[in-house]
Structures are given as structure tokens and as C-alpha cells.
Amino acid sequence: MNDIFKALNDPTRREILELLKSKDLAAGEIATHFNISKPSISHHLDILKRADLITFEKKGQFIIYSVNTTVMEDVLQWILTFKK
Amino acid sequence: MNDIFKALNDPTRREILELLKSKDLAAGEIATHFNISKPSISHHLDILKRADLITFEKKGQFIIYSVNTTVMEDVLQWILTFKK
DNA sequence: TTAATATTTAGATATTTGTCTAAATATATA
DNA sequence: TATATATTTAGACAAATATCTAAATATTAA
């Protein structure tokens, strides 16, 4: 849970998740959406990976990333405990 | 939204919210639940306040804090956009 | 008014974080 | 094999963060 909130606590990472919401993308394609270097994006992807918020699959020389909605469920449940 | 995720990205602050979920509490009462100095707790409360995740009311020399569930709704909606 | 209690503000410091460039690794293509 | 492309890893650095102690502010009670 700590890793998840940590991962969500960055606008770039949240935007990456929004991008992946509509379409799986390669790391490079993700990077082109931001004015940030590829190594930095790679680092953000790593943090999202550690939080299990994204999954990836190697396709030749590309690495395709997808959002993992099952982890979102955990956050959802936590939030819901505050609704009365 | 940035302020909310920032506020949620700390185990102490999340625990403060959980405490307030069951009962409104004074700043000092909140502080006794942690092995952290009162000024540090005050700082955490300030961050939660800025995110509008808690509200407060002055009662004599005490300041009573409550969780604000309406802001939780915003996070909830954001998370829900990932559920298909 | 003076002393005690509750809380915050100020200032300092060590740790964490986001970013960069340069280099390394892996795969595909000529 | 040699070269180009895709991505990550390593290392450095500035900015943000969580914590502390000491001091300031506000309220209550003697």
C-alpha cells in the first residue's frame, strides 16, 4: 500500500497510467509524451512496476507496458472505508 | 489532486485519517498515538488540512480534527476511471 | 496577572526523490 | 559482423520531505 501511494504521488506517473488506460505502449512511446529524458521515464516506469501498477512484456527490442487494474482495486477499497 | 496524493503518501498521515475515521480528536490526542514529536504531527495535520482531507474546529484551547470524506470522493472517481 | 496546558511556527538537518548525462545491455537489420 | 534502435543502469546533484528542538501564540485556571 505504501508503494502504491508512493507511485501515485507524482503527476508524471499518474499521466503515464492515464496514457496506458487507453492503450498499451512501448517505453519509448511513453517517453515522447513528456519533456523528460528517457532514463527518467524509465525510472518512473520502474516505480510503477514495483508498485505493481503496470505490467510489461518484451516484444523484440521493445518493451510494452500495460496498466494493472487489479492493484487499483486495493486503493479503491481503502478509500471506500472512509465513505459512510 | 496533487495535494491529495501528496498528503496520502505518508503512512503516518494515512494512520491519522484512520484514527479520525472512528472519532474526532484533538491534535494532542492524535499525537499520543505516535512516537513522533507534537510539532511533527502538527506538520502532518497541516499537510492534511491543505489537501482538505481534514477539517478542524477550535474548542477552547483544543483544536478538534475531523476527516473530510468529500475529498475522498475525488480520489475515488479517479481510481474508478481505471476499472473497466 | 501568573502559571499551566495545547498547539503551532521557526529553523536546522538528514534522507528521499526527480532529474540529468554517460555508459551498458539487448535486439534487429544491413 | 558491424551498426542502429530501444531501453535500462549508474552516478551525480538540486529540490522536496520528515523529523527534531526551541520558541511563540492562545486559552484556561489559580
Automatic annotation (TrEMBL), chains A, B:
UniProt keywords, alphabetically: DNA-binding, Transcription, Transcription regulation
Pfam families, sorted: HTH_5
InterPro entries: ArsR-like_HTH, HTH_ArsR_DNA-bd_dom, HTH_MetalResp_TranReg, SdpR-like_repress, WH-like_DNA-bd_sf, WH_DNA-bd_sf
Record protein name field: Transcriptional regulator, ArsR family
Coiled coil: none
Single GO MF annotation: DNA binding
Domain of life the protein comes from: Bacteria
Domain HTH arsR-type as annotated: residue spans: 1-84
CDD domains cross-referenced by the UniProt entry: HTH_ARSR (cd00090)
Keyword check for Kinase: no
